[in-house]
Amino acid sequence: MDRSFKHSGRRAFLRGAGGAALALPLLEYTHGHAWAAGGDGPLRFLTVFCHGGTISNQLKGSRSDGNGNKHGLDLWRPADASSPDLVLGPIHQPLEPWREKLLVLEGIDNKAAITQDQYNAGAHGIANCSALTAGDVTSGDDKVAQSASIDHVLAQRLAARQPVPFDSIHLKVAGHQYGSPYFSGPQQRVGGESSPKKAFETIFDGVTGGQPDPAILLRNTKRSSMLSGLMDGYSDFHGRVSTRDRHVIEAHLDHLDALEQQLQDPIVCNPPEGIDADGGAGNVVGPLLADVIVAALRCGLTNVANLEIADIISPWTSAGGLQAGLDIGYDIGHSLGHMARDIGPTGPQSSKYDDWVTYTLENRRWRMSLIARLLEGLDDPDFAEGDGTLLDNSLLLATSEFSNGSVHSSWNVPVLLAGSAGGVIETGRFLNYNDAAASDPDTLEYSTQESVHNLYTSVLQAFGEEDTHFGNGDAEHEGPLPGLVG
Amino acid sequence: MSSRGGLPATARTLGLGALVCALTGCYAGVQDHAGQDGEADAGDAAEGGDAGEDEGEMNEPLACDGQSVTVAARPMRRLTPVQYQNTMRDLLGDAGFVGEYDSAELVIAERGVRQLRDGAEEALSRRDQWTASVFPCDIDTDTDDACADDFIDQFAPRAFRRPLRADERAWLQGVYADARAQVNFHDAMEVLAGAVLQSPAMVYIEELGTPVEGAPEDIRKLTDHELASRLSYFLWDTMPDDALREAADEGSLHTEQTLRAQVLRMMQDDRAQARLQQLMWTWLQLDGGQLHFSLEETPKNASFYPEYGPALQDAMRVELEAFISDVLTGEGSFEQLMTSTRAYVNGPMAELYGVEAGPQSADEWAWVDLPADQRSGILTRAAFLTVFASTQSSSPIRRGTYTLEEVLCYELGAPPADVDDSPIEGGDQPGGDAQTVREATEARTSGEVCSTCHTVINPVGYVFEHYDAIGRWQDEEVVTGLPVDSSAELVGLDADGPIADATELSTYLASNERARSCFATRWFEEALGGGVGELDGCAHDRITEDFTTHGDLRELVTAIALSDSFRHVNLGPVEQGE
User: Fold this and answer.
1) Please, are residues B12 and B532 in contact by the beta-carbon 8 Å criterion?
2) How close is the nearest chain A Cα to the Cα of B278, in Å?
């Protein structure tokens, strides 16, 4: 295993003349890199993963028209699918201020999930493990992916050319879900931090707007010494354990290396204030997590940020009062998404239809409000990077393991993109890969050649990587999505 | 939120009786360990890519001939969060230490490694709370490097749970020296201690063993120290205590006499009670899973169940814990677990169970006998019945599925992706008569695709119909007022005639070979830290056969500890295709 040292380049990068850490203008927050010098800004990647699907009429390879059971609404897709410009659909309304920097994609399946699911739909477990990996999933009860997720792969590539303390950060709004979709390697599932306070303390550890705290410097010296000793100890252990267990210790060594990476020259940046909550309801925790992400990216603490949102119910939204009338408990069958199977404009539960639509829409819009908060921070002109904003140098991907969660469908998964990855993606568009939509954009027919494999290949290519394929062999074709990356 | 239990599905069947034929989607990969399913075995061996001499043995039925040691391969483990916290507390003599380490995933993530670092630093910051002897000098006032050597010799073996190797000693001396070159004595000692607390021998359960004459190279006998660790983490969820450690140091732990004595001693300790209690609680899935809430979070419809709330939920927990504890410290038999009518109740619980001459208030607790015509052992208690029900009604499907999978070790496959899994409440049906929960369940699951599994699941669930959503006895359904019918004919299980209700089911299960074997297998897996494999066949057979005969929990634990599978390790590739 090649364990090359990742941080040697970064020391040079962060040191100015005479070896002193760069002193930077102290704004409210500030960049951890010197922007004044001009040139290309570093690129960033964000994922927002919303568990449980969205309001979609996708039922495996077909679409429902909403007569009676299995309602036919698709509130994710653009309100006007024929328009040459992107016209945001109902769920995306909170994102209207950034419409020109967004893309909505339709007709992308998760073929890895569909192929590996015995019912050809997606399924819990399998869909979660393959949503971001487009890869093989283990069999048996406790499923895990056999490969790394797109965020991790890209984080490693970016860290090689844009050295940062944290290759990536991963925060989550905790709640019911069927397993984190994030993997740092085969069978190495990664869980997010759900406490804003802990996330802040970890990510901004030692970061100050002025001189480093001597106590922190001493602590870091001790940590570095401990880590160095541990790496020797674990390397030795690696040679002693059975061959089949070596990958476990290799992972451990990688993480020790990552911790050491975080000890290198402290970033000079004013940390955000007020990130005090250790937990709480989603409407308390969510915005704080988004703020931590924005600050971390601005300060150059990472290149890749993941925000994971569990399948939570949102009683604090304006429609939250409808929850009781809809009798939404935790019971799986009664949870918000699963009602889509039974509540339609006609049929035995039609009396609940309007309320269900209202509440679910508000629930999905609340998730979008967290994306809005991210976009607002990233697109803030006070933190310009060259001619654009941080958002212009980023790509944000919002998706889910399901389209229609009530039937566990990984066909036509929801995909929203924001940012142009440094100008290589033309934004403000709706890209519809549904073959049948060419003649009728609102058709209920559905077939596609595209899969998440192709989406993630496009993502890598957008960041200048040369991969021709991402994921396993379940996609219809290799290569990127046609027409996405310029 | 996490998946249930954390243990992989049982790899072996119990090889008992006729199983319902596997049609599409119902049973997932059931294998007959007696080798009847030869094709599957051959295929699995090929996929697994096991090298070495035992490949042929994997395809054959395993003879328990007492001559050759066999044991299946399982991945190396590291301390669970509970084990880590207990170990740190015991190592440092700091009962108040709280570790934030919560890493339970297969391969440790960066977050877990960070938590181990933070845990070591946290422990060091609490130095004045330590009651164990850790630093052999006063690191605030002394400055003698010899203290580091003494620390290495005295503390590191305790932390590593075995004597140090010479190269390890040199390594730790190097850690100290490197630190001392950068910081003062006090800080260097802290670096050394911190490194020890995060070392692989501390964090991982190291099992490398020694060669076994006549056995394949990968099959190794655990050293006495490794055996001590395995025992103490199985029975106590913590590091070996001094007495166990001494038996290992003396080199006598592996003898049958010493091993039996130690197991007996450890079983009588409170730590075993706590650990086995937790094992039972996890078995019952009462801390929640993907498809159901924990007992504490389970919501119920307030209009039907006005007495339900945090106080009653808490009382249910206390009642069930007391019941389990009573079994573990008392007779300790499977029979008692399944059929004893003793219950520790307060006023509200007595009322729930219909016990009139018992405690009246919520603060008053006493042991009573529950009505034998309504109650039996663990599967008829409120905590279990509450978790496996919907907000309004009983749930025959949930109770039936649980019982089949966890008590009888049936492997049920996944239901179709678009199945309607909303709770079945019974009551008025559109355009038809009111239905009981049972009738509504039958109606929903009688379709062709559903019936393969549900002809087996449903009867097991129907016998529980006399218990409502919080486990109260109901002659008429709370939700519909219709009379309850709990009599059911079990399918694919070998019962004499229909089962009238859950008390009869409990009696049936108490002496049922498959149930006993399943239970024993579960404890065996807990002890081994992974799924039972083909190469555990000899030990597994002995343990399950014995337990089927005597049903004694203490004997079960002893048999497990004495088994070849427990005392050996297989360092070869792990079997695939489970």
Assistant:
1) yes
2) 21
